[in-house]
Amino acid sequence: MKLSRSVVTVIILLSINISVFGFTDGIWEQVASPTTSRLCFVYFVAKDDGWAVGDDGIIIHYDGNNWSIVGSPTGNVLWSVYFTSPDTGWAVGNFGTILQYDGEIWNTFTSPTTEHLYSVFFYLSHQWVGSWLGS
Q1: Measured between alpha carbons, how far is 75 from 97 in angstroms, rounded to an integer?
Q2: Cα separation of 96 and 108, whole Å?
Q3: For residues 4 and 30, is the Cβ–Cβ distance under 8 A?
């Protein structure tokens, strides 16, 4: 399928060696990352509103031009991030870490477990968080 020039396709690839790659107009290019921490997951709310999480509780945000580090209330590895709107996001990670974004800052959220949480997903009024042991 060929995309028209007016549609910009943005795909971000996070590699194990701390590189960030973007895919635009059929070309993969390395883009500047503001961190040397490993990045584990990326989620885009819109083409100019992206988030990535990773080691040491790192959270970075893409504003359509650049990635920048955002304050994180944890030092635990964050494995996944998901947004239900531009002002409401969730991130999960090691030791039951759950963070919630309120449109301005990330806050810790009470977790029912201390297991590592690897995935977070929302669909309509349903929310799922997955761990290695299935809790």
Answers
A1: 10
A2: 11
A3: no
